Amino acid sequence: MRDGAISLSGCITALVTPFAGARLDIKGLRENVRFQLKNRVSGLLVNGSTGEAPNLSSAEYERTLTAVVEEA
Prior knowledge:
By secondary structure, the protein is an alpha+beta fold. 38% of the residues lie in helices and 14% in strands.
């Protein structure tokens, strides 16, 4: 491995950003994080490849990151 390279392994879940209607569902996001951790995932990908991130405001983007970090 090169100096400074990161080695990743295991299951890293790309979290869906849940909505209740048109509103961000932080409670649902926290529940999903708890479920993932209970089932022993190796990592969590927030605002990644599930497609919702470009549609979030800057404040919503930050709220999702904060909620996942707090829950983990």
